[in-house]
Amino acid sequence: MTHGKGRAEAQVGVTEFKARCLALIDAVASGKLDRVVLTKHDKPIANVTAVSDELPELWGALEATVHIPPDVDLTEPTGEAWDAEA
Q1: For residues 74 and 55, what is the distance between their CA atoms, to the nearest angstrom?
Q2: Residues in contact with 55: Cβ distance below 8 Å, sequence separation at least 6, in sequence order
Q3: Torsion 70-52-64-58 (CA) sign
Q4: Torsion of CA 75, 81, 83, 84, to 10 degrees
Q5: pLDDT tens-digit profile, the chain (86 residues)
């Protein structure tokens, strides 16, 4: 378990995660861990984090340049038909 920037996280291999997944998920859900980083061959491949009711933060070039009103659902379909072959 590592603590970086005041955050507690566990880094575990996928085989170990398979054996301990319920306990690790409970630790994230209860706030004992902020996240679990899953690794394969010592390379991070996935994260397990708690679900948040807040909208995710925008990263990169758009950070601090876009305001999303609280009543906007970014996951709602637009109704537009997309042609992937165009």
Answers
A1: 9
A2: 68, 70, 74
A3: negative
A4: 10
A5: 555 555 688 999 999 999 999 999 999 999 999 999 999 999 999 999 888 766 566 566 666 777 778 888 888 888 888 777 65
